[in-house]
Write a structure and sequence with these properties.
It contains nine helices and five strands. It is an alpha/beta fold. It has two domains: 2-85, Methionine synthase domain (Methyltransferase, Methionine Synthase (B12-binding Domains), Chain A, domain 1), CATH 1.10.1240; 93-212, Cobalamin-binding domain (Rossmann fold, 3-Layer(aba) Sandwich), CATH 3.40.50. Bound molecules: cobalamin. Cobalamin (B12) binds at residues 44, 47-48, 50-51, 54-55, 61, 64-65, 67-68, 102-109, 111-112, 148-150, 152-155, 179-184, 199, 201-202, 205.
Amino acid sequence: MSQELYTQLAQAVIDGDEKVAMSLTKEALTRGLNPLEIIKEGLTSGMEVVGEKFSRGEYFLPHLVMAGNTMKASLTWLEPALKTSGMVRETLGTVVMGTVAGDIHEIGKSLVGTMLAANGFVVHDLGVDVPTSKFIETVRETGANLVGLSALLTTTMSVQRTVIEELTEAGLRDQVKVMVGGAPVSPQWAQQIGADGYAEDAAGAVTLARRLVGADG
Ligand code: B12
């Protein structure tokens, strides 16, 4: 039953149909389905198809924009549910989060930020296309102990390395653990650039962040 709803929701993202996506999202929540599952099985799986169609030249930029707006609209309904789903009430750490310079992909970064905030982290979300110096400045100002760097393009992945290098140059590298993520990023890449960890999705980012701050003992 829920699988059918997820398939319809994925299709609404593929079609860029905000109205249908929002009404299906509301229905899924009314049925008591898990918000993370709605995101994974419905919205994100639709986005994967959109990405594939774009790669094959069947979809163009306006389709990506429409799909992005559709997912964002649905997430406005899901975020309150995600926020209350976190069990942790004490503060586990402070995270400076953003999508690196040259990259405007926002959705995954925001989702990771929301999930971290829901699970006991104070999150400073710097947005997208964040200048490297802004990450450094904010770490210094907030005394953060975690940095989350999102990159969705093979051309902007290297900026994750630049941020790590500049943290080192600024004498801040020992103060923070750096997490990296985004569609083209892999555990191998994380290791290669000297990051402290990689996670595939928002739930994985919470597990990783907890481990990096030593919250699991
Ligand atoms: C929607 C979309 C857009 C929208 C974004 C809208 C928005 N407001 O964010 C718009 C239209 C802006 C866009 C633009 C472009 N896009 Co685009 N886009 C996508 C698409 C279809 C979906 C991305 C998305 O939102 N996914 C849903 C979220 C939930 O998933 P996610 O971002 O991967 O995030 C999850 C994980 O990766 C992880 N994660 C993410 N960040 C982090 C950070 C940390 C610290 C951790 C631990 C985890 C983590 O957790 C997240 C939650 O589960 C992807 C295809 C794809 N399958 O990724 C292409 C894709 C990323 N885009 C692509 C391209 C080429 C472009 C453009 C260059 C197109 C153009 N010709 O202009 C521009 C780039 C503009 C720029 N300078 O950034 C390519 C990249 C190819 C490559 N290898 O470099 C892709 C892969 C499509 C494709 N198959 O070709 N895009």
